[in-house]
Amino acid sequence: MALRSKHILLYSSANSVTAFRIFLVFLSVLLFQWNEIAATVAFFLVILIIILDSLDGYIARKYGVASDFGALFDIAGDRIVENVLWIFFAAAGLISVWIPIVVVSRGFLVDLIRTVAYSESGKTPFGKKTMMKSRLGRFLVSSNFSRATYAVSKVFAFGMLGGLLALNKFSAAGVPLVSGSLLKVFEVTVQILVYTALVFCILRGIPVLVDGRHLILVRRFPLRAIGDE
Known about the structure:
Layout: H1 2-32, H2 36-51, H3 53-62, H4 68-91, H5 98-121, H6 135-142, H7 144-172, H8 180-211, H9 213-217, H10 223-228
């Protein structure tokens, strides 16, 4: 009984980390819209949010409390965090509006296929029951290297965007922390990091669309149905 209670606690802890990340991203957006001090706090919150991305999965795997729901909830949390930040930074004028459009569209398509795969055959995005078939697909989507690299790219992209917004807040308040020329270099660096994260986002979504295309094109819309008409 005690062991079962421990597993339930650890399982809840893993999911609580995901829920906490969702709470923090909305809090950071609110803080970014206040003064320069609040924006600085929000900058550190964004870094914490991305770092916590790996904690829930680590708890689940290390203590053997991983579940299908936990994996899907983790992905849902990632989607909320990323979409909120991309949309907010676009609304703040720091990035092109096309970036959140591409990211959100990619997310809907990938999650559609993953939902069908789970509902029809119990296949999950990661782990032993992963829906990924090809070796390249498994490497790009579910390997520790790929996930860590994508996480790092988001840490730098979102972190630098948050830092840039905080610097702009200080400049608007009449307390510029860096020179104008250095700020321009910072802005160019931010754009490079943003598009690097965007490329990783697209690359990790393509294998899901390729390996799961049969779930939509064949099983849902069989070719013989066209001939019958």
